[in-house]
């Protein structure tokens, strides 16, 4: 199931899991990652750096950290690029989403929040990501994917693709 709305991913109260648009070295400096680090503390970034070093995280992979002082059980980091500031692409986003879906199924996660992956620093066109979200998440009935973005333009695109199905 797909839900979508405008807001700050660090302020949502109704879920136990949030997703981060991440890189493969764990630095959480800007964009969604920076917002999560600022709201939840440096411990999230320290764990992310450690996970990336141990697992040699590559674009398309996901990795898990605690949520620091945020009220969530975990932060699920979706690696949209290897290095901070690098460009991403829709194929990497799709691989991240496939890995996220599989992780949610394996762990019994039924409600999760994620941002517009790769549309900021990663420079992937918002309409490509919005259409991919609608295509991939609308087919899954036992998990609610809450798309939350501070940018109303992205949410408008999600709504456009969702209502045209």
Care to describe what's here?
The two termini are 14 Å apart. This protein has a single domain, classed as Leucine Aminopeptidase, subunit E, domain 1, CATH 3.40.220.10. It is built from 5 helices and 6 strands; from the N terminus they run E-E-H-H-E-E-H-E-H-E-H. It is globular and about 40 Å long. The chain has a 3-stranded parallel β-sheet with strand order 1-6-5, with helices on one face. By secondary structure, the protein is α/β, with parallel strands linked by helices. The protein has helices at residues 31-40, 42-55, 90-107, 126-137, 152-163, and strands at residues 2-6, 17-23, 62-65, 74-81, 111-114, 144-149.
Structural class: alpha/beta
Number of strands: 6
CATH superfamily: Leucine Aminopeptidase, subunit E, domain 1
Output the CATH topology: Leucine Aminopeptidase, subunit E, domain 1
Give the strand content.
15-25%
Which labels suit this protein?
three-stranded parallel beta sheet, Leucine Aminopeptidase, subunit E, domain 1, single chain, 5 helices, alpha/beta, 165 residues
Task: Give a topology summary.
Blueprint lengths: L1 E5 L10 E7 L7 H10 L1 H14 L6 E4 L8 E8 L8 H18 L3 E4 L11 H12 L6 E6 L2 H12 L2
Parallel strand pairs: 1-6, 2-4, 5-6
Antiparallel strand pairs: 3-4
In brief:
The protein is an alpha/beta fold and 165 residues long.
